Structure formats: structure tokens, C-alpha cells
Amino acid sequence: MMHYHVSALQAASQTFDVELTFVAPVDRPVLRLPVWTPGSYMVREFSRFLGEVHATDRFANAVPVQALDKASWVVDAPAGTELRVFWNAWCNELTVRTPHADSTHAFFTGTNLLLYVDQLLSSACTMAISAPTGWEVFCALPFDGGRFTAGCWDTLADAPVEIGPHPHDSFEVDGIPHRVIYWGAQPMRLERTAICEGLQRCVVQNAQLFGGLPYSNYDFILHITPDMRGGLEHLNATVLACPWRFFESEKGFAEFLSLAMHEHFHVWNIKRIKPSALVPFQYQTENYTTALWVAEGFTSYYDDYNCLRAGITTLVPWLELMSDAATRLGRLPGRTVQSLTRSSFDAWIRLYRPDANSGNRTVSYYLKGGLVAWLLDLTIRERSGGSSSLDDVMLALWREVTPAYPGFDEARMGEFIRAHTGVDVTDALNSWVYGTDELPWQTVLDAHGFVCSMADDADSPFGWLLDSGGGIRNLIKDGPAMRAGLAPGDRLVAVDSRAFELLPTSVLERRLVAGSASMEVHYFRRGQLRSTVLEGPAHVTTTITFSLREDATEAQLRLRHLWLGLGEA
User: Fold this and answer.
1) Residues contacting residue 170 through CB under 8 Å, at least 6 positions apart
2) 464-539 is classed in which CATH architecture?
3) Which of 100, 141, 162, 396 could form an S-S bond across to 148 if both were Cys, CB 3.0 to 4.6 Å?
């Protein structure tokens, strides 16, 4: 058993002090800290936050500790020795996946702060926490005898801990308590009743799909800042990075609830319904899977879709969201280069580490995965005559989660879908998931009375994306700027001998789009003035718009009503 004591008494100095007590299960036990956290697929080297690791025996005699690698330490003691290990962590990086402490709060999860012993991973754990006077500790784990308890280290490490003098609210769904904890709310005039009501609708909608809630309590931890946005899922909690705009407009609030719906949907999809490649977690290295298009892509579909079914949004705004997503996908050259399965596999080196060329060679399993999930849902509904849907697939995945079947076989998703819906989607998976074909929007949407319109435009006619100072951030493959030999990092200073910052972009666009004479561009590259010639044709993009067919047939209306959860039309 591993017993932890985490002190946040030095939070104002951005410091945690941690003590771990355990009996050495083997000679010279090895302590480890994860290099990544589940739900965020990138090696993040949490050990960079730690100071030196020290140890004593039960009599306070010093025991030698030696670093083995970047995240492992060996304690020079024989089996059976009761050991106390001490370390501190300086935590000044604010994200939903890293520990952070200051004079206003303290936040961590076990994956980024708590060392573990391999042989004790499956043993019960306890954790006591010391907080500054007036601060409250929020953690969704059971609390007994002054300690939080967990049946194994995986469960302990998955539970986020938020500490501070925070306002908080609660609501119930099916008799199960849910807390909403607010950090950073002081500058905002929060409508806390509306927040709780909205979150409650999210929970109810997800619970309806899966037939109930799989936990005894749940925490929504809100980190409210000027501009940070994101979330990280946990077994019975989520941490949401909420920008101020979430609470300043109706559109922002709808985006907040979509994010909350997404992270809460993960209670099932990825926290309990896992690809077999992620069972068990390997905390010291990358855990490769080709199924993040299911874990994150399906969840990205269900976040806004379930907001629609819950009445949080309506159909026309929902179609606008999907139109925007499809347009963004269509403007990424990488969609024809990287498949969804490869995007999933490459998450560790691609998605969380974008560079100036990412859009030309990669595709997001969130973005394309969510759109593919929509098309799969509509395809299953059409081919089954409305009797089956992607809901049936998710429910079947959930029902098959058992200790004997802890993870699904990602290579057999097509067989699984056919077994539980009666629909063969092999052709769709080969084209949309394993391949890089363009998505057949109108072919799939027509059966439900949706219309897909496409219009060419010159949204980025030069094929560059600039910062406010004329610096090139990204180049689009085969666009005029790339053809001219420009590169990310170049800073534009003049076009045809006129200062770039004084030349209206619209003038340049009209010339390029019209296919007029070439333009001489002067720019700085690593401090040296250079020039090149920018020529047409302009980079042409496509805007995709989804709408409702005005002359929809009874058959189309029937399928659409079933998809909306309204029953037969």
C-alpha cells in the first residue's frame, strides 16, 4: 500500500511538498513518475517540476536514492523496509494536465505529481492533503479518516485535486451528486444557476444514451482565465479551462456546454470504453493506438449532437457548426495525406506539436473524426431503415466493458458495427478512416434531407497566414507564397516597392485573384533583406454549407426526425 501526504501550505511559492510512505516490496525498489497523462497523448516530462528525491527508514535514518533515468529513482533498501520518501515540486505551468499553485489555489493530479512503485500499482492507496487556512480541498475520491482513498494507483492518479477558497455549487442527477467548483471567477458575473442547469442537462443527456451513470459522484472543476480553453477527462471528474468569453454571450455559453458535454461523454468513451492498446496504461512511454478517431472523434460528434438533442442548441446553429468544421477540414491539404488511423497513431509527435507545415501533412482526429462519426451515424441509419444508429454502437461498446474484456479491438471496428447494427460499413471505413478519400457529403446527407453546398473563394489567396507584424506563420502547399520560395518566419516589408503595412490587403487580393501581373515581394529572413516574385493563380479554397432541403420527402423527414430523437415524422 502507498500512503501519500501532499502539502499545499507553500502554494503561494508555487510549491508542493510530498511524502510517500510504503513498505519496500522488493530489494532496491524503484520509484517512477509518469511522463504523460491519460487523455493527453504527448510525453510531457512531469519530472521537470520535481526537486531532489530523498528517503529515510522508519527510524529517520537516511536511505540513499539514485536517479536511474529522467523519471525513475532507485531506493537502496532491502525488501520489507518501511520507507518514507520526500520530494517537492515547483508548479507554475497552468494547464488542465500540469500541476499549478499560487496564492489563489493549488491544483494537481497524481500523474503529474505522485511517484509510484511498480509492484504496488494494483494495491490500495491513500492520500492526505494539507491546505492553507480557509482553503477547501476538492477531490471526487472517497474520503475516510482524514484521507482520500482509492483501490489502486490508477484510480488515485486519475482524480484531479483542486484546493482553494473557491465558490462551488451542486446538483443531482438520478440521486447522484455533482459539484461545480469555480477558480478564477472573481472578474466574472457568473450566472451560476444557469451554469448548473446547463451542466445538469449535459449529464442527463449522456446518461440517457448509456442507460445511467457509472459513478457515485462527479466534479466539474472550472479554471476561468482570460483566454485558455480546453478540458481533460477523468473517471468521475473533469477539469475545464474556461475563457471569459464562455460567460459573456449566448454563443460563448453554448460553447462552454459543448466542451462540458464532450468531457463528460468521456466518462464512458475512453475512461471506461478503451482501445485494447491502452489497457493497461504504460506511464513511462508512449501508448500507441490507431483508435483515437473513436475515442476523441466520436466524442467530438456527440458533444454538439447531444447538445442538440438536449435542447441546448437548435438544428440551424448546429448545421452552422458542422459547416464550419467541414470547411476547415476542406482547407487542410493534410486531409488527403494522412488517414484517421495514422493521425491517431502519430498523436504523440503531431497533434500536440503542430508546426508551420502541419496543415499540409496532417489531419486532426478530433476534427475529421467528428465529421466521420456524423456520416457513419447517418449511413447506419439509412442502411438500416432507421432501426439502428451510432448510439447502438456506443451502447454495445459500453455493455462489453468487463474485467475480462477491458478494451475493444480497434482493428475489428467494422465487424463490431455490423454485429450490433446489422449494417456493413466496411466501404465507408476503408475510405474515410483507413484511407484519405474526400468525404462524400451530399451522397450521405441526402437520405436525411440535408443539402451540401460548396462555393469556391479566395479566403487565403496568397497561401499564407500572417501574424500582426507581417510575419509568415504558415504556408499552404502549392500556394503562390510557397511557389515563390517564401518560408515560415519570413517578415514581409514591401510589395512592388510599397510598404506592406500601408498596402490594403484587398488591393493585393484583387490583383492576384484577377490574375494580373506578378508582384515583387521584399521580406526579411534571419535579418537579411531578400526579394521574390509572387504570381498567380491565387490559392482557391472551398466553403461548405449544410442546410435543410425545403422539398424533403416523407422518407427523408422520417429519418431526420429519428436522428433528432423525435420519433417517426
Assistant:
1) 177, 178, 179, 180, 196
2) Roll (2.30)
3) 141
